[in-house]
Amino acid sequence: MKSEYEKGFLAAIMCTGLWGVLPLYWKSLIPIPSSVIIIYRILLVAIVSLVFARLKYSWHEILSPLKDKKIVCKYVITGLIITSNWSIFIWAVNSGHIIQTSIGYYIEPLAVCTMGIIFFKERLTFCKLIAIGLASLSVIIILIHYRQIPGIALLLAITFATYSAIKKTVKYPPVLSLFYETIFLAPFAFIYIVYMELHGTGAIGRGAFYHYMLLLLCGFATAIPLGLFAYAAQRTTMFVLGLAEYISPTITLIIGVLIYKEPADRILFMAIGVIWLGLIFFSYGEFKDSKNRK
What we know:
Elements: H1 4-28, H2 34-56, H3 59-63, H4 69-94, H5 98-119, H6 126-146, H7 151-167, H8 174-183, H9 186-198, H10 209-215, H11 218-235, H12 238-244, H13 247-259, H14 266-293
């Protein structure tokens, strides 16, 4: 029999592993346009999250938080932000920028840390300062070498860090949060899907039948990893969750380089190495802090 901690650890690995291989799923939906995938995802995530929420909570428990205008406002904002994050990610993957998405999610924990220091007055330790500095250095290396800002990576990191900062102020179970974040956009998504399909610009007829069937699973592709993450968060440590977060961009990077043959030179790997060094400092700092809190 596995202990609760071991089950949580396994769930964390499975969750981040699934997030890491998601580019394979989004790529498999081509020739359906990214914009169509995004609209379907909004609606299907709302439906799937409601089904999962209803399995655990009563209608009263699900709907009562929506009576608070401040909570509604925050979830509308977080819904728009996380939808932007999804949109950038799906478009980037299907446009040949998988490596940039992996860089974005390597930087993301450090961006979240920066948000915590700026907006929540969290303590800036020496290790965090070094980690943020190294992440900034990696962006500068890419900027100088490629003569362009790694826009996709920065947008993914910034949108998710902003999303995390706002989410810190509203604490509801993950499945309810996911429902609240998508339900306000779902009616617009439904209307737009009907419009697109009636005018022949939607998903139907864009590819083989299996493309459409795969598209209909995108709600589960979003909800299942999130459910595993919530399960892991209740049974393991934040340190383990933090380290597990680096599995997904590593898998994504391998997929981009080895499977889809995206261009990557020594300078790019040097920049990623600098990020990894920053993550080592960051993880060590978090480990020390967790020991001091005990």
